[in-house]
Every structure is written in structure tokens, then in C-alpha cells.
Amino acid sequence: MNENLYYRFSQHFPDGDSTLLRAENGDQVSYSNLENESARYARLLSDLGAVPGDRITVQIEKSIEALWLYLACLRGGFVFHPLNTAYQINELSYFVENAEPRIIICDPQFEQIMKQLGEGVDVIKVLTLDQMGCGTLIELLKSTSANFDTHISTKEDTAALLYSSGTTGVPKGIVLSHGNLSSNAETLVSAWDFTQKDCLLHALQIFHVHGLFVGIGCVLMSGAKMHWLNGFNVKEVLKGLPLCSVMMGVPTFYTRLLASDGFDRDLCRQTRLFISGSAPLLEDTFKAFEKVTSHRILERYGMTETNMLTSNPLNGERLPGSVGHPLPGVQLRIVDESGTELNVGEIGAVQVKGPNVFKGYWRLPEKTKEDFTDDDFFNTGDQGQFNDQGYLAIVGREKDMVISGGLNIYPREIELLIDDLDGVRESAVIGVPHKDFGEGLVAVVVEKKPGKLNQEDVLNWVKCNLANYKVPKAIIFVDELPRNTMGKVQKKNLRARYGELLNNHI
């Protein structure tokens, strides 16, 4: 049996004339378009020299063409390697060198940079694609046939390579197989009752698990359709909601809808389900949303390494502050430092096992071994607890990670950069509550000579070297960082001291 994810999707496609998506401008795209265009893109990549297992690095804005490219990689057995469009050259250099892609597709403005980065890793072609659907990729496609047979893949064959940094700030490649992604999509379709009658409001980015594997996966594995937005825009979401039965979003989406004029119960009358993930949903947001719309947002829990692990029930009580029960097929346990499973109500490390859990870290066998137990449970790095009804609550993270606007940020990467700035002795970057983004970054800086730097000096330095979502929202200068007797910086003290800083300024 062919376990290729695209093939598994195709078994659920409706007839070719059925609508796959409706774009912001009103254009409609059919399932026939999906079949033809993904075949054409796969044929081109193959003709250029890509073979199954080759990485295809993609850093482009969200577009319908970007969707065809993702599906083409699945069809060809190529490894889809999406990159956040905000990444700058310092970050891109690492990803290209580490992933060693065969082909790179990027925005035209990054073409020369990508060509330079690809010189040392045997990249055979750098192609361009912009958000308007123009570029050298499109030019080559004009003379490319749509004749392509989907590659026969096993469950273990790699479908995608995504990167997630660790506490050291060094990104790790997460290897996701066709089996990982198909099993999770099938589970979510069942758990959330997706059918061909559904229309998903898709305003998420597609370089991220949420928009790429969860959103698109649920639609294609059920033969549903999408209202396709190039990004989250309140005005466009308000226009699209009456046409949609399901919306997926990060908590920031819901806080911004609540703050907008025209968002009310009547606007949501056709929507059966609102789903939130990628960051914790505040109880205040949950309650305010229910008051305005009569809908209780369904919160779920997942991560890049595992896709979705738990979900509040579609039919049943959705508890604010909880991420629900483990999904079917997922084994989840809470353990102490010795690995002993804990009782209900006790807080410990979250460990998981299931067909959705990733194969391992790209070319890091020792790190893979470190993060898995002897009985093959993955250590998520999160701290959680079960209540007596079996609902899981995530109460913290072992890893020093911040989630802002649904994006994972690892402070060590930013600290290392700030420490390289002339005049800085050391720094500590923390996440504190932010009403819009969930968490926002604050950098606490110790100067070599007090008074030589100002906030803009530090912010401009970070902006020039890292993606914009990693730029702190505030810089605090202090004489020294709080430490324990072992010399470790006490970030808990800093979070307590500056916990209300950002909300006081919103």
C-alpha cells in the first residue's frame, strides 16, 4: 500500500469540479486544479534533478502556488523544508548548511543571497516565487507537463523537515514522516468531525505546523474546502466567517476579533467550531469569546515534534485552561524526575508516544536518544498535570522557551546576539504576559559601562540580525542579574519583577 501522504489525501478528494478553496479576491480553485498543478510542480522538480529524499528548501510568502509546491514535494517523495519568511541571512545560512537542500525556492529579493548560501552544499537550482504568483519557478512551469505519478512511500519515509531550536539556541531539524502526518490528520478529522461539507477559514501561515499540517491536513483528509487568506487580517476574517464552518487560529486571532467592531454572535451563525492552539489561551479570552458568540473555543495541544497530542472534546465539556484529553492512539503520561508516573493532580514532565511522534532529530542521533526514554516515550519538555476527569493542563515548560503570537522563541539565541553587542556585559531574555500575543519578550541587559547604550541601540542590533518576531518589546538596563548560589541566572525572579511591564503599556 502506498503510504505517501498525498496519496492518502487523494483517497478522500471529492469529484474534480468541487471547490478546494476560495481566495481573498473571490477566485475559486477546484480539486482538479490541485491534482494538475501539484503534478506539474512535482514534474518540474524531478526534471531539474531532485530525487526522493532530497530536501526542497522553501522560504516564500503564503499563496496558492506555495500550496501546490508543498503538495508537489509530497507527491515526488521530496522532503519539504519550509522556512519562516522573517528569517534573516544569519539564520538562513545555518538552515541551508544544515539541511543541504537540492533545490531552493525563495522570494525574488532573496535570490542572490540564497545562491551564495547554496554554493557550498550542492544546490542545483535556486528558483523564485513571490506572493503574486510570479517568478522563475512559474516561468519554467509554463513548459512543464502535468504528467506525474505519485511516488510510492512507506510510513517511515521522510515527508518534511522543520526546525525548532533548543535551550542552547542551536536549531534542531525535526524529521517528520509520511506516517506521522497522515496518522495525525486522520485522527483530527475524526476527533473534530470534518466532512466534505466543511469550509475552513485558513488565515494561518504555512511554514508552521498549525497552518500546514493541521489546517490543510484536516481539509484534504476529508475532502473539505477552505476560505484562503494570505494572512490574518481582521477585516478579511470578518468577511469570511459567515462563509465558513470552522476557524483555526492562535489566541492572538481571537483577542483581535473580540476587540474589533462588527464581531458578534450573528457573524458566527454558520460556524460550528473555533479551534485555538500554538500558544496558551487565556481563560479571560475563553470566557469573553463565549459571551460574545455563544461558542466555547476548543483548545488543543501539540508541538512540531508530534503534531497534535490532545484536544478538548468536540461533544462535551471544554475546560478553560485545559488542553483536553489525549487523542486516540496517543499515550501520554506525567512523570517525576526519576521517571515514575505521577498521580492525578501532581505536576511533572509530559511524555508522549504514538504514530504521530517524529522519527528523530536530523543528523543528531545522540540528541534523539537523549530526548526519548528507553520505552520510546518522547520528553516534550513541558510540565503538566491531569485532573480527575482526565483533562490535561500545561502549567509550564522545562525548556526556556517563549511562545509569542503562536511562534516559538528560544531566548538563548537572542541573548547570545545581544551579548555580542559592544558595550554589553551580559543579558537575559524572558517572556512575560502580553494581552495580544500571549507572551512578549523583555531583554534585561547589563552594560560594561552604565549609560553608554540605550534601548534603540539594542533593538536595532537585534532587528538587523534576527526575524522580527524575535525582537524584544522592551529593554531593561540593570546593574546585575539575579543569580543563585551556583551562579545561574534566576529568570523566575526577573519574570516576577517585570511580569506586568508589557500589559501596563498596551
Give the structure's gist in a few sentences.
The chain is α/β, with parallel strands linked by helices. It is 29% helix and 25% strand. It folds into 3 domains: 5-178, Rossmann fold (3-Layer(aba) Sandwich); 274-397, Luciferase, Domain 3 (Luciferase, domain 3, Roll), CATH 2.30.38.10; 402-505, ANL, C-terminal domain (GMP Synthetase, Chain A, domain 3, 2-Layer Sandwich), CATH 3.30.300.
Task: Explain what the structure shows.
- It is a single chain.
- With 506 residues, this protein is an alpha/beta fold.
- The mean pLDDT is 94.
- The longest helix has 17 residues, at 31-47.
- It has helices at residues 5-10, 31-47, 64-76, 89-99, 111-118, 136-141, 178-191, 209-220, 234-240, 251-258, 283-293, 365-371, 411-419, 455-465, 491-498, and strands at residues 19-23, 28-30, 55-59, 79-82, 103-106, 125-128, 158-165, 171-177, 199-202, 225-228, 246-249, 273-276, 298-303, 307-311, 325-326, 331-335, 348-353, 360-361, 378-386, 392-397, 402-404, 407-409, 424-434, 438-447, 474-478.
- It has 3 domains: 5-178, Rossmann fold, CATH 3.40.50; 274-397, Luciferase, domain 3; 402-505, GMP Synthetase, Chain A, domain 3 (2-Layer Sandwich).
- It has a 9-stranded mixed sheet with strand order 2-1-10-9-11-12-13-14-15. Strands 4-3-5-6 form a 4-stranded parallel sheet, sandwiched between helices. Strands 16-17-19-20 form a 4-stranded antiparallel sheet, with no helix packed on it.
- Helix 8 (209-220) links the parallel strand 9 (199-202) and strand 10 (225-228).
- It has 15 helices and 25 strands.
